[in-house]
């Protein structure tokens, strides 16, 4: 698989990464054996980048990754870990802690759970004004010096935070939502990352399944209450109908190219530049195989123009998060 360089601190990852969140959390029940097999199939196919968060089902996601990596050479995998959010035993999000001692504490537990001596990219999953980003990134920087972390990343932050963090320690990549349905980074955030030499790991490339070609009103109606999508604005009511109509316009283009909707959505993100690495949230080997198929598709400038005509930049109906969550996103602050 082709590789991409992210940032200026020597981070090299596969052109496509596997996002592991849905194997444990937010997208309904998953099968542990199939989850482990999916991670292993991704590694066997040449994916090196695995993204997780210590708060994905309170460590469960890290345990799955540890299991999947058993017996493999550690240096062949790039582990990207988010931290900071705190979960209660019932799964609710009960707070966050980005103070330097908390950074070190979270990291110590993550190293144990993943049974590794270092994390390749360590990043706060969300940032909050109560702890200046300089302090949090400074603490991760100390962990880089001590050898426990290789690179420092960010997640869902805006340009001011990117600049402040980068001034403390070089940032390898910003993880942020980016897809045909979520193009908010194009105006300011992506150009700032490029100016500073910071890569982007894009999540929500399939808009959490909405843009996969496998979503339907019937499926939306069967979601468990704790599934993120049960209350996500794009997945409900009239918004869902409008968004599914957009997906159908993409399906017609996909079929004409012997591709699937998911593959076109992934290859569109791949076309943004080698400094943009899509994370795909495949939860089964079957879905993974479909996602990997995107790497074999070449789109001409005309193809890309047709895709963007089918799904114009502001076409999505509904915000990408509920309003309370939008309000805490640093990346959404004007
Ligand atoms: N930094 C952040 O704030 C943040 C936020 C969210 C996620 N992330 C990271 O990004 C990763 C990706 O998550 P996402 O929500 O952005 O994923 P996504 O790829 O946009 O969506 C994943 C969903 O799409 C469905 N799907 C259908 N066809 C697929 C295919 N061919 N390949 C892959 N998935 C397919 C999957 O489940 P079915 O098989 O059930 O259809 C799954 O429910 C996460 O695992 C996490 O590591 C980061």
Q: Let me know the average pLDDT.
A: 97
The whole-angstrom Rg is: 19 Å
> Which hetero ligands occur in this complex?
NADP nicotinamide-adenine-dinucleotide phosphate
Class by alpha and beta content: alpha/beta
Q: What level of helicity do the residues show?
A: 25-40%
Gross geometry: globular
Total beta-strand segments: 12
Low-confidence stretches: none
Tell me what portion of residues adopts beta-strand conformation.
Answer: 15-25%
Give the topology string: H per helix, E per strand.
EEEHEHEEEHEHEHEHEHHHEHHH
Structure annotation, total helices: 12
The largest β sheet comes out as: 8 strands, parallel, barrel
Kindly report the spatial arrangement of strands forming the biggest sheet: 3-4-5-8-9-10-11-12
Describe the structure.
This protein is α/β, with parallel strands linked by helices. Helices cover 39% and strands 18% of the residues. It has helices at 32-44, 60-69, 100-114, 133-145, 159-168, 189-196, 217-221, 237-256, 261-270, 285-293, 301-310, 323-328; strands spanning 3-6, 11-14, 17-19, 49-53, 78-83, 85-87, 93-96, 119-124, 149-155, 171-177, 199-203, 276-280. It has an 8-stranded parallel β-barrel, surrounded by 6 helices. A two-stranded antiparallel sheet has the order 1-2. Strands 6-7 form a two-stranded antiparallel ribbon. Helix 2 links the parallel strand 4 (49-53) and strand 5 (78-83). Helix 3 (100-114) crosses helix 4 and helix 5 (159-168) packs parallel to helix 6. The site of NADP nicotinamide-adenine-dinucleotide phosphate has 29 residues, from strand 12 and helix 10.
């Amino acid at each position: 698989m082709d590789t991409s360089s992210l940032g200026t601190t020597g981070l090299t990852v596969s052109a496509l990464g596997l996002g592991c969140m849905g194997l444990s959390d937010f997208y309904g029940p998953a099968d542990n054996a199939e989850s482990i097999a999916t991670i292993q199939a991704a590694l066997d196919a040449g994916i090196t980048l695995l993204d997780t968060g210590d708060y994905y089902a309170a460590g469960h996601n890290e345990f799955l990754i540890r299991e999947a990596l058993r017996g493999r050479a550690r240096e062949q995998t790039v582990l990207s870990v988010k931290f900071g959010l705190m979960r209660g035993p019932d799964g609710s999000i009960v707070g966050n802690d980005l103070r330097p001692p908390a950074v070190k504490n979270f990291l110590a537990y993550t190293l144990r759970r993943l049974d590794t001596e270092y994390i390749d990219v360590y990043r706060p999953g969300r940032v909050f004004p109560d702890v200046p980003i300089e302090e949090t990134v400074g603490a991760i920087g100390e962990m880089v010096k001590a050898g426990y972390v290789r690179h420092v990343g960010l997640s869902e932050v805006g340009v001011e935070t990117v600049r402040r963090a980068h001034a403390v320690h070089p940032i390898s990549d910003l993880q942020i939502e980016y897809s045909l349905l979520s193009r908010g980074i194009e105006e300011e955030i992506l150009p700032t990352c490029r100016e500073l030499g910071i890569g982007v790991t894009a999540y929500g490339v399939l808009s959490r399944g909405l843009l996969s070609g496998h979503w339907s009103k019937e499926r939306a109606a069967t979601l468990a209450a704790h599934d993120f999508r049960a209350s996500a604005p794009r997945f409900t009511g009239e918004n869902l109908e409008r968004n599914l109509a957009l997906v159908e316009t993409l399906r017609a283009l996909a079929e004409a190219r012997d591709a699937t909707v998911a593959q076109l959505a992934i290859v569109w993100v791949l076309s943004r530049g080698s400094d943009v690495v899509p994370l795909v949230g495949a939860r089964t080997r079957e879905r993974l195989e479909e996602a990997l198929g995107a790497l074999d598709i070449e789109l001409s400038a005309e193809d890309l123009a047709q895709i963007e005509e089918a799904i114009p930049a502001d076409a999505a109906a509904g915000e990408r998060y509920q309003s309370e969550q939008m309000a805490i996103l640093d990346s959404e602050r004007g």
